[in-house]
Structures are given as structure tokens and as C-alpha cells.
Amino acid sequence: MTKTTPRQTSPKVSTLASNVLSGRIKPTPAQVRTLAATALSQDQTKGQKPKR
Fold it and tell me: Which domain holds residue 35?
């Protein structure tokens, strides 16, 4: 297995996430998609973990 470098979140997305989590803004559907896509693209594991 090769080791990959972690992907970095852009400052724009990082600021958006901070504002949403702190409650300063209510995200639009497009902003929600951006945050979700960022989280999924940074996931290092592929697929779901098996249920126990």
C-alpha cells in the first residue's frame, strides 16, 4: 500500500465550514454540496467498513 500525502482544504472551503459550524451562516444547498464533496474527497478509505 502506498502512502499518500493528505489533501488540503482550500481557504475558501475552510472558512465556509467554520462559518457554518459556528452558526454565523446558514449554508445554501450548493455550499452543502461543496462541504460534502470536500469531506468525501479527503476520505482515505474506500467504501464502508463492514458491520460488526
Answer: 11-39
